[in-house]
Write the structure tokens for this entry.
Amino acid sequence: MKVLITGANGMVAKATIKNCKEKGDIVFAYSRQDLDISNRENVLKVFEQNKPDAVINCAAYTNVDGAETDQEISYRANALGVENLALASKKLDCAFVTISTDYVFDGTKGDFYTQRDTPNPQGLYAKHKLEGERKAQNAYARSIIVRTGWIYGEGGTNFLSVMHKFLAEGKGINAISDSFGTPTYSEDLAKRLRELVILDLPCIYHVSNTGNGVSFSGFAKEICKILEVDKNTVNEVSDRDLNRPAPRPIDSRLKCLFSEKFGLEPLPNWKIALKIFLSK
């Protein structure tokens, strides 16, 4: 299978490239520098050159706070670019998977969000990601949308991906105790992305590691437990205290209604996935 992967320098894309190559796929990987997905003409040109059987879009503008001021950049990457990839995939009649976010929900439900729940994004990043979902579906009925969140893994630079380094060195960290999500290990997500390509059933899927979800401070304390370091180095803070520019859902835990019904095995429990990540 020939697979075209965008956002090649990102954590999820790197895991996806690795997984696809291990499965014997021919992979065409494009970074933002190689392919500006907001440029429709260039996207079509690249697709015509490579003629992929499947496209996995890992490209995104992920600076949640930055999107409040860099509105055009966020929109072009998270909405317009997704539409361009969907249109190009339609022209070549290839499978298309694109990654969205748990932030499309407002976080007020107090329980897991499923596909039955109505999105209500609060910040511009989340609004652009939701628009990207809808543009993809409108452009190409074969589009597969993957909502996920709290992603961490090898090569990641976000807080979940690096906090273990500080904790292992005995350095104190501030971690939010009243914001909850479902952690997602990048390697598990990458495997599921390819499985969805093979399944080729257009739908919105919620993809995360299983379990009851956790707060940032709970995630940090689980790291302390696994590494056998002092959990008192984790200083619990409230989301309200941070005064960040963009609003975020306070509880964006995800659960999928369709994956198991379509024959997909549940992803490992987040605690097991975290232990695997730390062992590497």
About this structure: The chain has a mean pLDDT of 97. The helical segments are 11-22, 40-50, 71-92, 124-139, 159-168, 186-199, 216-227, 270-279. The first strand starts at residue 2 and ends at 6.
